[in-house]
Amino acid sequence: MIAASILLASPSILIYGGLLVDGSGSAPREANVRIQGSRIVEIGALRRLPGETVIAAKGFVVCPGFIDAHSHALGGIEKEPTAISQLSQGITTAVAGQDGGWSQPVAKEFADILRIKPTINFAMFSGHGGLRAEVMGKDYKRVATTAEIERMKTLLAADMKAGALGLSSGLEYDPGYYSNTDEIVQLAKVARQGMYISHVRDEADKAMDAFQELSKIGKEGSLPAQISHIKLGSKAVWNKTSDVIKLIEKEHLTADVYPYTYWQSTIAALSPSRDWENDEIWVKALDDVGGAQNVRLSTYTPNPAWVGKTIAEIAQTTGRTPIKIIQEILLTTNEEGRQSVVVTAMQESDLVKFVRHPKIMFCSDGSIGGSHPRGAGTFPRILSKYVREQKVLTVQEAIRKMTSFPAQTFKLKNRGLLKKGYIADIVIFSLSKIADHATPSDSKALSTGVRDVFVNGVHTMSQGKLTGLRAGTPIFRDR
Ligand SMILES: [Zn+2]
């Protein structure tokens, strides 16, 4: 009787006739899903209730909304609260605060999300690099003192209290680069109700050492640890996937991966050395990624004419060496100005093994309107290229890795499964049609094939178009 009175209280929606892939990894089955308010209230062979809205889903997959395990969408959400590039991929929750980024307390970030009211949900990590910058200011090119670490701990503890998922770091970037393992272990202990997630110190030659460091931080901090956007990004570590997977399995680590063999970052990320005037480091850096033709400048505020060109092309047109070009780019953007590069540095064979592994979830590592196609294409690319075409994964396993696996790892309560009582973050897509269209030269091209998206029970995308409704909320760590 209680259920019946709730049903009378607000109109329900019946998703009818679809192929249910519930997020648990179970085989697809035909079933109908009833949602009411923000919740899933029934699943099974259901009939339409009087007055009920029916969403016909025959021929479509019905599954939980995708959780983007490493997202930079928060940066652009104020300008673009529709998050169309995320929503059109089926992403309903973005996990932000990555790579050690932090510009204000997580409680304030959550307040901003409530004010902005985006289409998608956001969960947040507290970022080591930003905490470090807040405490150490410009004097960060050294290990933090005990007193400084104590101040970072205070800020981190407040973030954890506000519902942060844990501590993130970006040890290849300033100012996190200058920390040592012990500094992070001390902070990780404060985050142990949650987890540690890291863009590790080196994604190239010393990637194995960097993964070991992450494992040590997890162990000594007594918390789960996850490798962000896992990759083997230089010749020296190509084909070492089995070593990495052994470590992940032995140390109970998790990881996330994006389905592209090229990365995007600052040009300094080409080399772990900071000895930028030394030509030798760039000779090696370019050799490691297969040459200057594999490095494409995607942002460069001092000279927009260079944007979209490879370092090899710029060298040719200017009559200078690729190394001189890189050094000039660094020099002119170090203090002011921005630059970023897209670098083809990974092997498809390594990527496929990561995509397949059950402990590796998916991330876009993308932003809204970013210059890497992963920002608009990641999830449909997994489903089209690696599920439908190459059959690297079954659809139910791919969806488990997009939904319940991240939800459980990050402690996102009542999300990631199509289950009675769970929150109705739901995607309806065509497995035969889903496709990504973004490329390095057209990075913002939207994905297609996702027909309907419900976020917190609200019909946010219908027939592939925005409905104008926005129901995204902050998501707190389950306690
Ligand atoms: Zn990163």
Structural descriptors:
single chain, 479 residues, alpha/beta, TIM Barrel, 7-stranded mixed sheet, 6-stranded parallel sheet, 15 helices, 32% helix, binds zinc ion
Write a structural description.
- The chain has 15 helices and 24 strands.
- It has 479 residues and is of the alpha/beta class.
- Among the domains are: 65-262 and 345-410, TIM Barrel, CATH 3.20.20.140; 279-343, no CATH class.
- The strands form 5 sheets. The chain has a 7-stranded mixed sheet, with no helix packed on it. A 6-stranded parallel sheet has the order 11-12-13-14-15-19, sandwiched between helices.
- Helix 4 (128-136) packs across helix 5, helix 5 runs parallel beside helix 6 and helix 6 (181-190) packs parallel to helix 7.
- The longest helix has 17 residues, at 146-162.
- The mean pLDDT is 95.
- The structure holds zinc ion (ZN).
- Zinc ion binds at residues 99, 170, 199, 228-229, 365.
